[in-house]
């Protein structure tokens, strides 16, 4: 599995990159890839999402620099922003699970185990709602789009996220639960680099795979070579 860590990346740029990678993965031209990054303030609405769960007008949000995208993943309305680690696993899910439900469950399990092992935080699945929860608050949102067994979109982990930004939406359309972050739970700012490194170790353990870390430049060259070989 190839892992690439980006700095702050505009949502549209990341979406275009995902679509390119998914197309190559469907053709079995590349390995499974995991993109790790942050976005500028962005609201995304899933294919079955209710626009009423965006609580402010598009004009008002755009005036303060928030972009809005209607996208093809499952789920409702989600916020992305600085301090949040977004992960896009573009994987052949048949390598890791019997079906979509089990695959999502295993992604959730990554965060449940990682939070326990690294921070002694007890997190859980929820029978009704996708994601990872600490008590009644979501720390990791999860939403995938899967085509011909190849996933795209993925997870959003609140590390040092400004939780006030979730007041712009009803997160995932859920009215009776809250959101939290690693900073809120631990009481101190957390290192994204440390989080990434320990998460990758947990992914390697649970999915029985080996992650190869590439720089942005190395990954761009890798994709270019694979495209030229089509």
Plain-language structure description:
The structure is a single chain. This protein starts with a strand and ends with a helix. Helix 2 links the parallel strand 3 and strand 4. It has six helices and eleven strands. The protein is globular. Strands 1, 2, 6, 7, 8, 9, 10 and 11 form an eight-stranded mixed sheet that branches. It has a three-stranded mixed sheet with strand order 4-3-5. The chain is α/β, with parallel strands linked by helices. The protein has a single domain, classed as BirA Bifunctional Protein, domain 2 (2-Layer Sandwich), CATH 3.30.930.
Note poorly predicted spans. Answer: none
- Assign the structural class, choosing from mainly alpha, mainly beta, alpha/beta, alpha+beta, or little secondary structure: alpha/beta
Extended strand count? 11
> What percentage of the residues does DSSP assign to strands (E)?
25-35%
| Backbone CA Rg | 17 Å
Q: Termini distance?
A: 20 Å
CATH topology: BirA Bifunctional Protein, domain 2
Q: Largest sheet, described in full?
A: 8 strands, mixed
Give the CATH architecture.
Answer: 2-Layer Sandwich
**What characteristic shape results from the CA principal axes?**
globular
Mean pLDDT across all residues, rounded?
A: 94
Quickly count the domains.
1
- Oligomer kind: single chain
CATH superfamily: Bira Bifunctional Protein, Domain 2
Helix share bin? 25-40%
